[in-house]
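seq:
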Amino acid sequence: MAQIELLALANHAEVQNGLLYLMGAGWDTVTRSYKEGEKPRPQHFAIALSVLVPWMEHNQRHQVVIRVEDEDGHSQLMEATANIEVGRPPGKVPGTDSRSPLVVTGIVHFPKPGGYRVRATLGDAQRDYAFRVIDKVK
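struct:
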């Protein structure tokens, strides 16, 4: 069964020629700095993932749903859906799995400090990436 092999947050991410490029990846805290009386600015970030697709599931469509939500799953701040379909390129050794990298970028306004998560769902499987938002008022 296809599975989410990698899920990470980064300041910037992109896919080029089937490769996943990450900059400022692996963080778990967003620090919002703003002046007293002002509102915090929305945060830009990238969600990077890699889907491992078994040989027998090549040339089949797999839907991935990515959500940014609070840690309890009550408040959804962002959602993206993608369909992944990996073909069998010429010369690929029979039985070999393939990886399909994917990047979603977004700008999210977090309503308050606290715990949040990115939840990626692929079929019946899901993978979470937890992080915190903290405020630094000047």
